[in-house]
Amino acid sequence: MSSPDTKKLDTFLQHAGLADFDPITGSAPVALPSVRTSTVRFKNLAALDKAQAAKADLRLRSTTYGRSGMQTHAALEQVFCTLEGASQALLSSSGMAAISHAMLALLSKGDHVLVADSVYGPVRYLEKTVLQRMGITCTYSQASPDALRQHLRPSTRMLYVESPGSLLMEMLDLPLLAEFAREHQLLLVTDNTWGSGYIYRPLELGAQVSIVAGTKYVGGHSDLMLGAVMSADPQIDRVLFDNHYALGHSVSADDVWLAMRGVRTLPLRMRESAANALQICEFLTQRPEVVRLYHPAWPQDTGHALWQRDCTGSNGMLSVQLGVTPQQARAMVDALQLFGIGYSWGGFESLVQYVDPSVLAGHSYWADQQNSLLRLHIGVESAADLIADLEQALNIAVAS
Ligand SMILES: *Cc1c(COP(=O)(O)O)cnc(C)c1O
Known about the structure:
Layout: H1 4-15, H2 45-54, H3 71-84, E1 88-92, H4 95-106, E2 112-116, H5 122-131, E3 137-141, H6 145-149, E4 156-162, H7 174-183, E5 187-191, E6 209-213, E7 227-231, H8 234-247, H9 253-263, H10 266-285, E8 290-294, H11 304-310, E9 317-322, H12 326-335, E10 340-341, E11 351-355, H13 357-360, E12 372-377, H14 383-399
Parallel strand pairs: 2-3, 2-4, 4-5, 5-6, 10-11
Antiparallel strand pairs: 1-7, 6-7, 8-9, 9-12, 11-12
The protein binds pyridoxal-5'-phosphate.
């Protein structure tokens, strides 16, 4: 699927953040260099005063110190803003740091948060380790208005979701959740790492804040950690900005540069991974061991209609429920040659994760199934090679 908007983004991503021409030679490098600096130098005090005064207007992105970065950072922030339809993007050293930034900025002592039970696992760790200590409480729930309504409290302030959830790819009805959040004056905060702004745009579907782990598809080459928090409301922008500064978030210019380099090919990589993933779905669905596939672009996925309505493309994230013993599922993982065993996704390479049943216990979408779950990230290798690899590994697993 490719909407006109997606085509515009394809062009934008090739032209974003080009270096300025040198005023004397009239020339410039094609790629913006990594502008590394720990502070900013001013010609005179008048220039410094002007930069300080300009800080009142966040759109001017006035920098007086190295922590917030200079041209390289500004270019990547602009990329995130355009991808997500945001007025502001703030970078962090990891996706998890971006999540904690948004939570700590927007929540206060005594606040209650409704959290979709399909969210990225370490969010629960953040709650246990930090939020509880700050007097902030979370309730995990299936993310439908009917289920969420039962957990509302007078102190509920935020609805935090991830769509699709990155283990079972559970598509949420974001416009409906946005309506529910508005009705109850909750901030809707979404983890949009799956869509990374390119194929799914939560801010346009009614969310106030969108968070992306740039570590995944934006970086795209499994060589950097980075996160970003996007918003499109002047008041929320200001709160996020002030807290980002106060908490000391900062990203190395080299990692930002790598992310800029990676994002140029985001459309190509996502499209290739998505096409490969569909071919792998075709193969898997013919295997007797496969009980269910989780991939919203696959027509039999429960979330397919929502995906068709709200997304402009797909990616290489795919989970598969196997009617085999845990030992057989583990044997399959070990037998795979092309799929690396690892936790991340969104890079060029294929990865596999044996999902521990204890992790799924808290997901209503899993509903206590007894089977084994493997999560695959389908990279940009040849689909035929990946299918052959899966086939030989499945055969080894069932024979074991
Ligand atoms: C990986 C991931 C994160 C965290 O990103 P890091 O950069 O690894 O901290 C957050 N949300 C989702 C959905 C992720 O997959």
